[in-house]
Amino acid sequence: MGSRASTLLRDEEIEEIKKETGFSHSQITRLYSRFTSLDKGENGTLREDQVNFRGFMRTLAHFRPIEDNEKSKDQNGPEPLNSRSNKLHFAFRLYDLDKDDKISRDELLQVLRMMVGVNISDEQLGSIADRTIQEADQDGDSAISFTEFVKVLEKVDVEQKMSIRFLH
Amino acid sequence: MKSDVFFLYLLPPIVLDAGYFMPTRLFFENFGTIFWYAVVGTLWNSVGIGLSLFGICQIEIFGLTDITLLQSLLFGSLISAVDPVAVLAVFENIHVNEQLYILVFGESLLNDAITVVLYNLFKTFCQMHTIETIDIFAGIAKFFVVGIGGVLIGIFLGFVAAFTTRFTHKIRVIEPLFVFLYSYLSYITAEMFHLSGIMAITACAMTMNKYVEENVSQKSYTTIKYFMKMLSSVSETLIFIFMGVSTVGKNHEWNWAFVSFTLLFCLIWRALGVFVLTQIINMFRTIPLTFKDQFIIAYGGLRGAICFSLVFLLPVAVIPRKKLFITATIVVIFFTVFIQGITIRPLVEFLDVKRSNKKQPAVSEEIYNRFFDHVKTGIEDVCGHWGHNFWKDKFKKFDNKFLRRLLIRENQPKSSIVSLYKKLEIKHAIEMAESGMISTVPSSASLNDYEENIVRPLSPDEMNNMREILTKNLYQIRHRTMSYNRHSLAADSSEKQAKEILIRRRHSLRESVKKTHSLNRNRPAITKTTRFLSLPKDTKLPEKLRIRNKKSFRVGDDSSDSELEAPTTVLNLKPRARNILQDQRHQQPQQQFRMELRNEVNGDHEGRGDHREAAYETHASRGYRQPLLSRPRFGTLSEENVTEDVRSARPTPPPRLVRWASDAERHNNKSENQTY
């Protein structure tokens, strides 16, 4: 924190980020200081994936809770990054590893394997994946497309589940 | 009714029921808000009502001037307690969304600590002649002691109960007894030390719920559930009856001003309190509470039997106008319960409050929920923000490492996804066994589209046909007369049937998915062996048997026959052996079936021959799935027949076939026939 952080982040940039993501000024500076403390190589990016600060903020913006006053804002402009459908898009992309806009059985298996742990047999995981796909699949292609994904989650309170309170 | 009876016998079952079935996850997510409302809200209410009533009493014309400040504060403290009984009774019917429900209900449970402390505090103050500031601080400290002490006692006894149930797998019938005993014990212990009994029993129930549920059998769990609900319903009814009866008595003194102003102040202060508190707490919440929510919370603050008992407990010597208090309390209770309780439902509909949606639990939802949890924890970690999820994650790790190992028998760390999946499959299988029809997993996406399933009506002929086929082919267990043992219950035959169908159904599901993938998965053997791993947790198999079975299947028939031999010669009547025997059968349905068939052909000619002929007619072409078979035999040692026939090489009669699921079975059957 302190002077080192703020000199590297220009004011115009902060304004841009604020408009794009909706975070407040203090939140952005705080997150920037966190970013720099994570960025050990001091080259402006995180790890090999070359996530720069803008990308970092964009991703985090998905997790901002939805506020009431935003709903009435301009309908013409681009949807704010933390709207329900954008949150769902983000979650979908986390599953969809090969980016073909479908969650196939193998992708689901991978995610399940990571979440569930090591003491479940492959076959059992396979059954769970099968059941999941069966529950969601409407057009019978044995993969989950984005619309099907949204359909399954329409009863789940995604706005609440995918939100983190960012301290001011 | 004495207050003793109420507090010792009638109240605990209700609180226990509430605490045991409380959705803990939701409760802890909103814990800050609930705590805030319970503590600060109750304080605000009691002080507010007490002071304003005192102000009213100062007005000469009402004739109330002999009520001192302390007395009115005492009255304020007991009348401001939101009552869990009344709240439960009303909220359960209107089905508001879970968040609202948990807020109001959690508040009503937790405010007992405050109420008890304030009540006792003011009562002793009334009896003392001089009050010093040290006493006030002692009172505040006492609140912490009462609340936290109660919770600690509850948690401690909850752990003891969980630990006890770890060892009860030999004597299943007394498991429910432990649950009830320990919870009541926690209540009584807390009350004995003048701590908050309600908090103790709530904490105990919530702790027990997590661990005991894994240790007890399914039957014990059902017993506990129904017995608890029954007890709490009975208690609730009795409480309200007593209240009604006491109303019609000679304990009253009516004073228009006091009663009406009490009622008015209760409503006003509750509304004000909720509003102000929500403004403050909204700054800390992720999702702020809207006005609608606030209104429902304020409106749902019903007073009930706790106020009633507390007012009865007042010593007359200290409070000369006790009867006045009783009258006022009764009026408030009646008003809140009847008028507010009745009108809350149309209000909820009018305001269009978000209702809870009773949806079918789906595995996919569980997956996504868990997924979001992980993602959120990760993001919080990246932000360096020690939020809610961070602590939850830490607690879970601690839980898995120490607590579960200690408290749960045969602890395999289970994922909630897997348990939900198993639960759903078992439910599905039982439905199938009962209705005799096959239904595919309803796609919840398509269910959202169509509200009702259109079932093709079957002609009576078809129904009879199917029924006949099913009764012959459904898996039935050999009956043996067991020695009557008071401490063990014989397993139900439909349970085992359900298990069997579960396994087969899972297999068919896998097959149908495999077929649509059109992958050539040439591993029928492996799919067979996993039947063991996917059995419900009660069936214990000795380790070596499991391994032997895996190997034997690949080798072929001969060893599998010897497998069958081994358990059968052990004519043990214990359920476990029976399970093993069945599991053997699960693994090798086809071979089993053939042996049995030969058995029948040889064994029972008389009387059953024609029966068999009729069944043979029903087979269609090859490629349909073969059902499982076993005939119930009463009392005879039939296993020897089986093994005999196996040795004798007889040509197999055409298998009795039933059209079961999809044509994918053909693939499976061909491979089966080859191995044979």
TrEMBL record, chain B:
Chain ranges passing through the membrane: 7-28, 34-57, 69-94, 100-122, 143-164, 184-205, 257-284, 296-318, 324-348
Family matches, as Gene3D superfamilies: 6.10.140.1330, 6.10.250.1040, 6.10.250.2020
Compartments reported by the entry: Apical cell membrane
Biological process terms in GO annotation: regulation of intracellular pH; sodium ion import across plasma membrane
The keyword rRNA-binding belongs to this UniProt entry's keyword annotation: no
A GO MF label: potassium:proton antiporter activity
GO cellular component: apical plasma membrane
Membrane-topology annotation of the record: Multi-pass membrane protein
Sodium/hydrogen exchanger regulatory region domain segment(s): 440-547
Highest taxon listed in the record's lineage: Eukaryota
Pfam families in alphabetical order: Na_H_Exchanger (PF00999), NEXCaM_BD (PF16644)
Stretch list, region Disordered: 617-676
Keyword entries, A-Z: Antiport, Cell membrane, Ion transport, Membrane, Sodium, Sodium transport, Transmembrane, Transmembrane helix, Transport
Cation/H+ exchanger transmembrane domain segment(s): 3-349
Family affiliation: Belongs to the monovalent cation:proton antiporter 1 (CPA1) transporter (TC 2.A.36) family.
Official protein name in the record: Sodium/hydrogen exchanger
Organism: Pelodiscus sinensis (Chinese softshell turtle)
